[in-house]
Amino acid sequence: MHIVRFAALMAAAVGTLVVFGSPGAVADEMRGNAVEGKRLFLADGCYQCHGTTGAGGGMAGPHLAPDPLPLEAVKAKLRTASGRMPVYTAAVISDAQIADIVAYLQSLPRAKAAKDIPLLNH
Amino acid sequence: MSERKEPEGLTGAGMGRRGFLKTATLAGSGAVAQGVVAASQPAEQPAQRRHSVQMASREAEQGTPPPVTATQASCGSDFMVDVMRHVGIEYVAAIPGNTFKGLHESVINYGMTSAPALELVSCMHEEMSVAIAHGYAKVAGKPMACMMHSTVGLQHGAMALYNAYADRVPVFAIVGAILDAKDRHGYVDWQHSVFDGPALVRDFTKWDDTPLSLSHFAESAVRAYKFSLTPPWGPTVLAVDQELQEGAVAKGTALLIPQLPQIAPPAGEAGAVREVARVLVAAERPLIVADRTARTPESLRLMIELAEALQAAVVDVSGRMNFPWRHPLNQTQRRAELAARADVILGLELTDYWGVLGGRLVPGVKRISISSIDLYMKSNYQDFERFTPVDLAIAADAEATLPALVEAVRQQTPSRRRAFFKARGARLAQDHLDSLEQSRNAAAIGWDSQPITTARLCAEIYEQIRNEDWALCNGTVFQNYWPQQLWTATRHYQYIGDAGAYGLGYLPGASVGAALAHRKHGRLAVAIGGDGDLMFSPGALWSAAHHKIPLLYVVHNNRAYHQEIMFVQSMAVKRQRGIDRAHIGNAITEPNVDFAKLAASIGLYSEGPVSDPGELGTALRRAVAVVKQGQPALVDVICQGR
What we know:
The complex is a heterodimer.
Chain A: H1 2-19, H2 23-29, H3 34-43, H4 46-50, H5 71-79, H6 95-107
Chain B: H1 17-20, E1 36-38, H2 58-61, H3 76-87, E2 91-94, H4 101-111, E3 119-122, H5 126-140, E4 145-148, H6 152-166, E5 172-177, H7 187-191, E6 207-209, H8 214-228, E7 236-241, H9 242-246, E8 254-256, H10 270-282, E9 286-290, H11 297-310, E10 313-316, H12 335-341, E11 344-348, H13 353-356, E12 366-371, E13 392-395, H14 398-412, H15 415-444, H16 454-465, E14 470-472, H17 482-486, H18 506-519, E15 524-530, H19 531-536, H20 539-546, E16 552-557, H21 562-574, H22 595-601, E17 605-610, H23 613-628, E18 633-638
Parallel strand pairs in B: 2-3, 2-4, 4-5, 5-7, 6-7, 9-10, 9-11, 11-12, 12-13, 14-15, 15-16, 16-18, 17-18
Antiparallel strand pairs in B: 1-8
């Protein structure tokens, strides 16, 4: 079961890389609304595991931003999640809403470098 | 009151219990190596008036105390105090209950006023009493006594006893009892009476007894104390009858307190230990995994010696402080990867070996277990986790087995093997540095965000305490183990693990108990706890304020029972119902809890709520200054979920 899901996810991710290799695909992804995406990210509980800024953390959930996965990979993950991550079907989150969430994740600034934060260099 | 006769053989031939108990006192526990206690003063035993069965008023029905018709120079519960002192108990945690009022009175008017003095830790709830004893024992290395009311008191304390049991921690619990029906003065006494009180918690305590005489109490108390400290450690319960506590003790009565032996924990069989050493020395990729292994500075030192003798990777499951967090061989961050690649895995006091393996049994891997849990296990509660096939299971205390194992590894390591070990150690040291860098980079993500990240929370706390002799009193699973990733810890008391059974309400009490044990060493005790956990048992912080127990309590306030949100979400999406209502029943909002006000109202210095990460360091610094002056302080921090 896990193998099947993993294969599906990988296929989607590979497909995504191909799709997003073109400028047209990037344009599609940019259609998402970052403001609405933030609202969904908070309302749908994504932040509970991945953090308000998508930073994630340990066992609670992997980091999603900065540098989020492409739209199709995020969609594939949501539709075929396993383990503690719930499966989010289209009935719960539409493709357009996922695009909004990805747009929000893309809008988040990059983290400071750890070496520039004194508290992280003891 | 009773005139009944004691059965012969329990309290002396033909002597009634009350006659037998008349006025004995103990001339200091130092004089009782053989434990003979002689009564010093006579006590008159005038006729006692029977309690009327004609209930004329509500007051009478609620249990008007029987008339006091005699003064007592000594009593059964004074002797119980002496027994507790004899075994080494220093503190008694309790919320009052009339079924142990005799013992309560003895603790405060005899135990606290004569040497070696006991201290009664005044509590708000039996669950907190037990949790305080739980946290104390993990630092002090010995039990605290914990007095609980019959029936309702023990029912309140039961969950905390389960935590202690699952965490392999000793608690010396005493529960009041009114065994004789004619001693129950009113209907409340009947509701607070039970024939076999400890049965309630028998599934998750190591041992219990209901002594019928003071000699019986002494034997059972020493037996309970000894057994609780024989690995695997665990809580015990004694139910003490009201009459046994309150009865006078006769002059000249000799009461024996058995000697408490020095306890030698069971070490692994010598041949098996040599075989473990042989397998470890021959291994290419050995992995040492420790959970509740190190109880003492010596065992932490031995863990380091074992790892360094082999130059082997160590994963600390974090049940205790088993290995220095910045040691080059500490590979905890790479747990899953190393468990999948290892050719030999040595599990030391693992509760969940299956979990360490990630649920995969890799063919050809030698799995070894050294665990005292194999020596004592109960059947009903399933805290023993999934059965994991191993090649060699040594039923023994891992800490007690370490000296022989370290020596055997040294003896069996040929000189030609040392270069290989050295190269392995160098690779692991680099891996450790890589893990540290990864952790720091991960901690930087969202550094300035609001709510404050748990990484920033932990980094800010460490900044304020790193130059102190600090001791963390909480498990760190809900803070994503950031302290283990970012802090430097080298001493065995700097981390004591978590609740044991994931029973909420643990940390407020346990951190107060741990801080109490740290107090005489001048350590700076710190706890990071969730808002949901604190709402279970905030009264424990009153105990800290009342007893001036220095503790920095930082609230990781994510305003929800966060873990459960995800579970409910999962259910909702599975049923295609949407997830926008998953917060209902999980969120702790509307209203938000103001923990700073709550803490201030029960006597703590407090800061917060702090939501701006730029202000967190300053708030923590002010709170640490208060703690260093000997007082508890709380800082409420609005945080990310984890």
